[in-house]
Amino acid sequence: MSDTAAQPRSDGDDSDGSTAATATDDPTDPDDGQTARPVSTGAESVVAALETAGAKTAFGVQGGAIMPVYDALYDSSIRHVTMAHEQGAAHAADAYGVVAGEPGLCMATSGPGATNLVTGIADADMDSDAMLALTGQVPTEFVGNDAFQETDTIGVTRPVTKHNYFAGGSDTVGDTVGEAFELSRAGRPGPTLVDLPKDVTQDETDQTPGPATPPAGTDPDPNADAEAVEEAARAIESAERPVCLFGGGVIKADASDEARTFARSYGVPVTTTMPGIGSFPEDDDLCLSWAGMHGTGYANMAITHTDCLIAVGTRFDDRLTGGIDTFAPEAEVVHVDIDPAEISKNVHADYPLIGDAARVLDQLTAAVREAPDADAWRERCAEWKETYPLTYATPDDEPLKPQFVVEAFDEATDDDTVVTTGVGQHQMWASQFWSYSEPRTWVSSHGLGTMGYGVPAAVGARVAADTMGEEDRDVVCFDGDGSFLMTMQELSVAVREELDITVAVLNNEYIGMVRQWQDAFYEGRHMASEYSWMPEFDKLAEAFGALGLRVDDYDEVAPAVEEALDYDGPAVVDFHVDPEENVLPMVPSGGANGNFAAVEDQL
Amino acid sequence: MSGDSPDSRADEDATDTRAATDGGPAADGSPEANSRPLPGEQPGPDERDHPEGRRNLEGIRIDPVVEAEHESRRAVISALVEDEPGVLTRVSGLVSRRQFNIESLTVGPTTVEGHSRITMVVEETDPGIDQIEKQIAKLKPVISVGEVAGDAVTSELVLLKVEADDPAAVHAVSEMYDGETVDAGSETITVELTGDKTDVDNAIGAFERFGIVEIARTGPTALARGNTPTAPGEKPGTAGEPTTHDD
Q1: Active-site pick, A34, A149, A207, A489
Q2: Which of B79, B77, B121, B88 lies closest to B244 in space, CA to CA?
């Protein structure tokens, strides 16, 4: 259990004498509220603000326009991890934030440095991950002149940030950076960015930044309206077929304990969304695992037949709901979310509860007076679990099955192991065939679906675990051959920093999810999906200075898993798995969740 | 389906056909046998129960008796914003990114230094209007946003340049619509008119017979009638002070 923060993440500073517009009552990091050290330049003010806000680690790549900030980092307590590519810096910062429960920090120079961050920023935006990106910019007087390495970073990142700032001067830049850091985790988390023109960071200033505080009005009331809670509680009590749906918001609010207490107190079966994996233990009798396109058959049956859906911290993505007309079509919906804009955006909320997931779940637990009468329903859910288990065949005339590899790693590791993934079939198998029981152990790209997320995320997750003094935790990255090829250069970082990560490439020599769709919907026309041109990943790993292994058969799996996990440093195992294997069950895009295909012929 | 096995794969020893599931691999690393139904043995979609109910496209459960259908309507939305660089881009970018149907957008200063009012006319269903307000409210420079209550006072401005063949007639039509001549030459006359959308449309229709050369039109701006604040909680304020209060 990596419960690093017992309070909701919506707390700002609590420094004495603060003139913050938003009063908070939560104790926060001991770093918070310290007086920043004296500064002499804008760049030093930036770094002092980051230290004061509690940032411990930054991921980035050097460059011309950001050099003054890097120079100021030279004397800082903040650890900087140089990445091979700025996209890797953004993903590593994102994953660091997920595991550590605090905003990740990434840095890049102007122009191409900043544009290379965009994918990672967009990823954090879609998954509501707290992250601060600092980008160098050409000097203010050149802005707009198409100067060397100039990009309109503010314009480019506006649609994919919670908010972005153009730093106006060396006297104020520290406070701007502190505000951006806190804004990223205030209320609904998300990425923020500060664009730093080189003159702003180079200019002299003696203005030490004040305590980091989020902008006024961005730190919402964590408690839901008491009357609304009472109404929702009555609806829950009278339900006959209640189901909880725990989303990523439960994990972000550190509300897993409250979620477990609520569900167990009233015997409510639990489904999660994919980002919500780990919020509720999957080996619990009440747990139906995750719902959606490749979720379990039993989760999708429960979601389809429920008469009361208690949805917490989810935005009802189309991959979860399938066709909206058939999504929980007979359910009264209780929707808990910190962001009012998510209420009734995709699915109408009969009982909207706006607030912090942990607080509102506590309110609900207290307000429900008797458990819903749901014995028959729980029995039905248990039957679905028996009828539609996640399973796969291992015929003797077919190659190694990827699901078997995932299960082998799960068997060999502890519950606190962090799993990161790229995007595609391997991501689905890693989420289906691994039994998750703790929050912040599943680190993946959900909303944006970014291939290549896995390796840099493993770097960020490992650094986070080490920073928290949890060196004993394993970090396992499941990657596809296509995903691995996109960001494997970050392996060089893992080697340089001596990071103990294990990368399991489920190599089917296809961009497999595309191949699966081509077989199902494009008459098997494999346009640009055959990856038979892949390099030998085990040899590549060795070239980077990592351990490289290759596995083709069942009897090689266990020894390779053991060797890779035992190796004290980055290890890559290239598992050559069945190229024909498909991810099932599957709800066809826009279809009804209850119509999931258990086998390909049903698509 | 081509899907040959990768050439590079060594020819493996045969393993028995069996299912491995949640139990995971056995200690010896071989797949574990178990009795759980394989996917092919599970009931297909046609053999499962399916509920009767449905939701409409807005995610609202459809009552078979009274279907929850939403008609789109015209709404005037007023946003009080911090007058910082890019605020208009943030608002208009959000509107276009989320595919809201927007008819017009105007922006101008308020009584408070450093604040602006953005007035938008949108054509949306009630849930759509609700979503526009909520999404705009999330933008950091936005102080307050809401639909202008009831029958808002709306007005827009148009500059009309017409051919000057018959100045007297142009002047007469201009008088009829309370217009003002702002530029007159030997070839063209430019008239300024204000009014609600219908007034302006009618005036343009009346000027068409002179031959309209150019038009510049602002789109409506609006205030709520009487004591009702135009943006939710809005009150007279000065720079640096809160200009809204929670009601």
Answers
A1: A149
A2: B79
How do residues A134-180 score in pLDDT, each as one tens digit? 999 999 999 999 999 999 999 999 999 999 999 999 999 999 999 99
Q: Judged by CB atoms within 8 Å, which residues 398-417 of A form the interface with B?
A: 399-401, 403-404, 407-408, 410-411
Tell me the two tokens of residue A515.
Answer: 């191949």
Most confident by average pLDDT, A503-507, B108-112, B124-128? A503-507
What angle separates helix A86-100 from helix A454-467, to the nearest 10 degrees?
50
Phi-psi region of A82 (alpha: psi -120 to 50; beta: other; left: phi over 0): beta
Tell me: pLDDT of A13 over 80. Answer: no
Among the partner residues A329, A399, A580, nearest to B53 by beta-carbon distance? A329
Could B42 and A395 be called an inter-chain contact, meaning their C-beta atoms sit closer than 8 Å?
A: no
- Per DSSP, the three-state class of B168 is helix
DSSP for A476-536, please give it: EEEEEHHHHHHHGGGHHHHHHTT---EEEEEE-SB-HHHHHHHHHHSTT--TT-B-TT---
Look up A162 and say whether it is catalytic: no
* H-helix or E-strand spanning residue A392: strand A392-393
In the three-class reduction of DSSP (H, G, I as helix; E, B as strand; rest coil), residue A153 is classed as helix
Rounded to whole angstroms, how far apart are CA atoms A120 and A104?
Answer: 11
Chain A: closest CA distance from residue B95 (Å): 11
DSSP B149: P
Instruction: Give CA angle at A375 (A371, A379), nearest 5°.
Output: 140
Determine contact, residues A291/A300, Cβ cutoff 8 Å.
yes
What is the distance between the alpha carbons of residues B132 and A84, in angstroms, rounded to a whole number?
A: 40
Residue B39, chain A, CB below 8 Å: the answer is yes
Q: How would you class A79 by CB atoms within 10 Å of its CB: exposed for 0-12, middle for 13-18, buried for 19 or more?
A: middle
Q: Is the pLDDT at B70 greater than 90, yes or no?
A: no
Q: Which of A582-591, B20-29, B161-170 has the lowest mean pLDDT?
A: B20-29
Distance between CA atoms of residues A246 and A268, nearest Å:
12
- Sign of torsion over alpha carbons B229, B233, B237, B239: negative
Per-residue confidence (pLDDT) for residue A442, from 0 to 100: 98
- Closest approach of A408 to chain B, Cα-based (Å): 6
* B12 with A553: Cβ contact below 8 A: yes
User: Please, which residues have CB within 8 angstroms of residue A33's CB and are 6 or more apart in sequence?
Assistant: A13, A14, A15, A16, A18, A52, A211
For residue A603, what are its two tokens? 């698509």
Task: Give the residue from A156, A325, A575 with the most B CB atoms within 10 Å of its CB, the best one to mutate.
Answer: A325
User: Which of B4, B18, B53 comes nearest A394 by C-beta?
Assistant: B18
Task: Give the chain B residue whose CA is nearest to the CA of A523.
Answer: B1
Task: Give the integer Cα–Cα distance in Å for A177 and A181.
Answer: 6
Please tell me the distance in Å from B21's CA to the nearest CA on chain A.
5
| Contact yes or no for B6 and A407 at CB 8 A | no
Residues near A273 by beta carbon (within 8 Å), at least 6 away in sequence = A245, A246, A247, A248, A290, A291, A292, A314, A317, A320
Any B CB within 8 A of A194 CB: no
Give yes or no for A301 touching B (CB within 8 A).
yes
CA distances (Å), origin A142, targets A135, A148, A195, A199, A591: 16, 9, 14, 10, 52
A168 touches chain B (CB under 8 A): no
Contacts of A445 (CB under 8 A, 6+ apart): A91, A123, A127, A421, A422, A423, A427, A453, A457
Contact yes or no for B31 and A395 at CB 8 A: no
Question: What's the start-to-end Cα distance of chain B, in Å?
Answer: 65
Cα A421–chain centre separation: 10
* Cβ pair A274, A249 in contact under 8 A: no
Residues 6+ apart with CB under 8 A from B190: B159, B160, B161, B162, B181, B182, B183, B184
pTM for this entry:
0.90
